[in-house]
Amino acid sequence: MENGRNRKYTEAPIKILLAKPAIDGHDRGIFVLARAFRDAGMDVIYAGLLPTPEEVVDTAINEDVDVIALSLLNGAHLTAFKNVMDILNKKDVHDIAVVGGGIIPDDDKPILEKMGVTGNFGPGTPLKIIIKHVRERAMEVRKIKEDEYK
Predict the structure, then answer these.
(1) Rg of the chain's alpha carbons, rounded to an integer?
(2) Which of 65, 108, 120, 133 is the most exposed place for a label (fewest CB within 10 A)?
(3) Residue 4 lies in a domain
(4) Is position 24 within any domain?
(5) Number of folded domains that form the chain
(6) CA distances from 12 to 7, 57, 116, 135 (A)
């Protein structure tokens, strides 16, 4: 089988879900990221505006993504990102990386990292840095997936 859980993870394009899991209608930045990830050869799925954390996780699982990229500009990142992580953990999903971005105060970044949300990039971060981080995280979880199916 060429896709799904049996694909050769190291060769398939990275699959990334972009989501804003809280009330935050600011979507210009996420569209810039979507295009940058697509131009970098990734398969991009956009969750649309205002998905619930449950919808984000369900979409990520159903689409077999490597990475969930969460973005918020409204200050709800500690709650919304935590909700996504809690649902992933409750469902025992450990083979999807979660990266974050938006308006995130420096004091909140270690809290998010401890939850498992990495990156936590702010406005103005060069796209090549974000893409590099996403690639690295995707390769980490692909190793988990490959080990799981050996």
Answers:
(1) 14
(2) 108
(3) no
(4) yes
(5) 1
(6) 7, 21, 24, 12
Supply the DSSP symbol for 82. H
Mean pLDDT of the chain: 88
Structural domain contains residue 3:
no
Query: At 29, which amino acid appears?
Result: G
Non-local (6+) Cβ contacts of 129 within 8 A are 121
By CB neighbour count within 10 A (0-12 exposed, 13-18 middle, 19+ buried), where does 26 fall? middle
Question: Which amino acid type is present at position 149?
Answer: Y
Q: Which domain holds residue 36?
A: 12-148
Residue 118 lies in a domain: yes
Q: What is the pLDDT of residue 2?
A: 39
Q: Single out the residue of 59, 54, 66 nearest to residue 96, CA to CA.
A: 66
Which tokens sit at 86? 């809690």
* Confidence label for 118 from pLDDT (cuts 50, 70 and 90): very high
Instruction: Specify the pTM.
Output: 0.88
Question: Which CATH number do you get for residue 20?
Answer: 3.40.50.280
Contacts of 119 (CB under 8 A, 6+ apart): 99, 100, 101, 130, 133, 134, 137
Distances 76 to 65, 82, 111, 140 between C-alpha atoms, Å: 24, 10, 13, 27
